[in-house]
C-alpha cells in the first residue's frame, strides 16, 4: 500500500511538470514567469492532496509504512524546488523588451542645416548692405564735388571766396576719402559673392534671367522661416511659444516701468531720446510782431524757465544796423508771439544802442531767466539777468576773432557779426567761436557758473573751418554744424560728440528752408524743436530722435519737405 501511495504522488508531480512545459512552449518568453507560477500552484495543490491522503492512509495503515509516506512528500517538494530553480534561470537569461514610440523622431540634421544657413546669410547680407549704402553715398557726393571745383575755376578771386571754396572742397574730399576707405574694407568680404552670378532659366528657351542678391536673400529667409515653422511641431511642451510670450511680457513691463518715471537728466552725449535722425517741418512759420522790419534776430524758449513761465517764448531783433540790440521781448504763448502781443514788453539791457554790454550779433540764447550773447565790441560772453537787470561777462581766450572777423559764411555771402554762436541743450549753455591759434577752425566751450560769474569750462577743438559753416547748435552734448546748399535747402553735415570726441562729416540731414538764409539756429530741449530766424521770419522744425536701428540710411540723408503740421506747436497756444 505504501508503494502505491508514493507512485500516486510522483505521478501527480509528473503531470504538473508536463502541464508547465506545455504552457511554457506556447507562451511568449515574457509570459514564462506566469507559467512558472502556475506550475508551482499545481505542485502545491498536488502536495496538499497527497497530504490529505497520507493522513487518511496513516490512520488506516499507520503501523505499516509511516516513514515511506513522509519520504515521498519531501521528495516531491525537493523536485518542485529544483524545477523552479532551473526554469527561473532560463527565463531571466532570455528576457527581451520592445519599446514602441508613437511620435516621429526629432530631425536634428534639419535643424543643423537651418542654423548653418542662418549664419551664412548674416555673413553675406551685412557686407552687401554696407557696400550698397556706401556706394550710393559716394555716387551722391561725386557730382557735388565736380560742381564745386567747376565753380571755383570760374569764379576764383584769389581772396576770401577762393579760401572758402577750397575749404568746402577739402571737406567734401575728406568725406569721399572716408567713404572710399570703408568701400575698400568691405570689398574684400564681397569679392567672392559679387563675382558669382545666380541665374535661372524661364520657360522660353535661351533666356536667362539674373536673380539679384536681395531676391536670393529674401527667398532664402522665407525658406528658413518655413523650415522653422515645421520644426515647431516637435515642440510638444510649447517651450518656444512660452519663451516668446515671456519676452513680450518683459518688454511690455519694461516700457510700463520706464514710462511711469520721469526721464533722468542726461549726461553729455548720452541723449535719452536717442540719436538725431532727421529734422522735419517747418511746424511754424511767421513774421511775428514786426513783419519784414528786422532781417536779423533770434527766438526760442528757456530750457530752464521760472515757475509759471514754462510756455513763454523770447525774441531778440537787431534794431541797429542789422547788427546790434539792447532789449529782449517776452511772449506768454506761441500764439501771443505770432500775434505780436508781448508781456511785459521790452526788457531793456541799456537805454542806448549800441553801448557797453549790449547785444552784438544774432546768436543769442535764454537760459534760467538770463540772456547769453556776444558783448558789444569785445570777444566776451555777456549774461543779462532779466530779473535783477544786471550784466556779468567772461572773456574768451586770447586771439578769439570778433567784430565780424570770424563769421559764418557760404560761397555767396557771409553773415555779419556771427563770430560767436551761443547754444543751449539738456546740459546747459555752450559758446562756439574761433581763434587765430586754431587757424579759423570751430572751437566749442561750455559756459559754467549759472548763479555766479560765468566761466569757460571744458573746451573742444574741431577740424571744421568756421567760415565754411552757416550755423551751429548743440543737442544732447553733440555739436552740429550746417552749410548752405541752396535758397531752399540747408544741410546738417557735421557733428562732434563731446563724450567720445568723434567727428563726422557725413551726417547728411537736410532742412527745408522758408527763407533764403538762416541767420540764427537754436535747439530747444523742452520740446526738441529747432528755432530758426532769417529774413525777418521765425520758423520752427521738429527734431526727430531715435535708436541707431531706426536709421534708414543716415549717410544718404533725407530732404525734409515742408510739412503743414502745427499739431504740437499749436497745442501750446
TrEMBL record:
GO terms for biological process: signal transduction. InterPro entries: Olfac-like_dom, Olfactomedin-like_domain. Residues 135-186 form a coiled coil. It is found in: Secreted. Keywords: Coiled coil, Secreted. Transmembrane segments: none annotated. It comes from the Eukaryota. Residues 270-547 form the Olfactomedin-like domain. Pfam families: OLF. The keyword Coiled coil applies. The keyword Coiled coil applies. GO terms for cellular component: extracellular space. This is Olfactomedin-4. It comes from Merluccius polli. The lineage of its organism: Eukaryota, Metazoa, Chordata, Craniata, Vertebrata.
Amino acid at each position: 500500500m505504501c508503494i502505491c501511495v508514493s507512485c500516486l504522488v510522483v505521478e501527480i508531480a509528473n503531470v504538473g511538470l508536463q502541464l508547465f512545459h506545455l504552457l511554457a512552449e506556447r507562451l511568449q518568453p515574457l509570459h514564462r514567469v506566469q507559467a512558472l507560477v502556475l506550475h508551482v500552484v499545481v505542485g502545491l495543490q498536488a502536495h496538499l492532496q497527497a497530504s490529505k491522503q497520507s493522513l487518511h492512509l496513516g490512520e488506516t495503515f499507520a503501523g505499516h509504512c509511516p516513514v515511506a509516506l513522509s519520504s515521498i512528500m519531501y521528495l516531491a517538494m525537493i523536485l518542485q524546488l529544483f524545477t523552479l530553480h532551473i526554469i527561473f534561470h532560463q527565463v531571466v537569461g532570455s528576457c527581451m523588451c520592445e519599446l514602441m514610440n508613437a511620435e516621429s523622431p526629432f530631425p536634428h540634421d534639419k535643424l543643423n542645416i537651418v542654423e548653418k544657413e542662418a549664419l551664412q546669410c548674416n555673413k553675406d547680407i551685412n557686407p552687401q548692405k554696407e557696400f550698397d549704402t556706401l556706394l550710393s553715398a559716394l555716387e551722391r557726393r561725386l557730382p557735388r564735388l565736380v560742381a564745386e571745383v567747376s565753380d571755383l575755376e570760374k569764379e576764383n578771386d584769389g581772396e576770401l571766396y577762393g579760401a572758402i571754396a577750397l575749404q568746402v572742397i577739402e571737406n567734401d574730399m575728406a568725406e569721399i576719402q572716408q567713404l572710399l576707405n570703408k568701400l575698400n574694407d568691405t570689398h574684400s568680404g564681397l569679392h567672392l559673392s559679387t563675382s558669382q552670378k545666380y541665374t535661372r532659366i524661364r520657360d522660353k528657351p535661351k533666356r536667362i534671367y539674373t536673380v539679384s542678391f536681395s531676391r536670393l536673400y529674401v527667398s532664402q529667409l522665407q525658406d528658413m522661416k518655413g523650415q522653422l515653422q515645421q520644426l515647431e511641431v516637435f515642440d510638444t511642451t510649447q517651450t518656444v511659444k512660452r519663451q516668446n510670450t515671456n519676452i513680450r511680457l518683459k518688454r511690455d513691463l519694461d516700457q510700463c516701468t520706464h514710462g511711469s518715471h520721469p526721464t533722468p537728466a542726461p549726461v553729455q552725449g548720452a541723449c535719452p531720446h536717442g540719436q538725431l535722425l532727421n529734422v522735419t517741418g517747418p511746424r511754424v512759420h511767421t513774421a511775428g510782431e514786426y513783419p519784414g522790419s528786422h532781417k536779423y534776430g533770434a527766438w526760442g524758449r528757456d530750457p530752464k524757465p521760472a515757475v509759471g513761465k514754462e510756455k513763454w517764448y523770447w525774441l531778440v531783433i537787431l534794431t541797429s544796423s542789422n547788427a546790434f540790440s539792447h532789449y529782449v521781448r517776452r511772449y506768454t504763448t506761441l500764439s501771443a508771439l505770432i500775434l505780436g502781443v508781448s508781456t511785459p514788453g521790452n526788457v531793456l539791457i541799456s537805454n542806448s544802442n549800441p553801448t557797453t554790454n549790449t547785444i552784438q550779433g544774432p546768436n543769442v540764447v535764454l537760459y534760467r531767466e538770463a540772456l547769453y550773447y556776444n558783448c558789444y565790441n569785445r570777444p566776451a560772453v555777456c549774461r543779462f539777468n532779466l530779473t535783477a537787470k544786471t550784466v556779468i561777462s567772461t572773456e574768451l581766450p586770447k586771439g578769439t576773432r570778433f567784430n565780424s572777423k570770424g563769421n559764418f559764411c557760404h560761397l555767396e555771402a557771409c553773415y555779419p557779426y556771427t563770430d560767436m554762436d551761443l547754444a543751449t541743450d539738456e546740459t546747459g549753455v555752450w559758446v562756439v567761436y574761433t581763434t587765430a591759434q586754431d587757424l579759423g577752425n570751430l572751437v566749442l566751450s561750455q559756459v559754467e557758473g549759472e548763479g555766479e560769474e560765468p566761466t569757460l569750462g571744458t573746451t573742444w577743438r574741431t577740424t571744421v573751418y568756421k567760415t565754411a559753416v552757416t550755423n551751429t547748435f548743440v543737442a544732447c552734448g553733440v555739436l552740429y554744424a550746417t552749410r548752405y546748399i541752396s535758397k531752399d535747402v540747408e544741410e546738417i553735415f557735421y557733428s562732434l560728440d563731446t563724450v567720445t570726441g568723434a567727428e563726422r562729416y557725413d551726417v547728411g540731414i537736410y532742412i527745408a528752408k522758408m527763407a533764403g538764409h538762416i541767420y540764427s539756429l537754436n535747439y530747444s530741449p523742452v520740446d526738441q524743436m529747432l528755432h530758426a530766424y532769417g529774413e525777418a521770419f521765425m520758423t520752427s522744425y521738429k527734431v526727430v530722435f531715435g535708436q541707431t536701428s531706426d536709421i534708414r540710411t543716415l549717410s544718404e540723408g533725407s530732404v525734409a519737405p515742408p510739412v503743414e503740421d502745427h499739431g504740437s506747436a499749436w497745442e501750446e497756444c
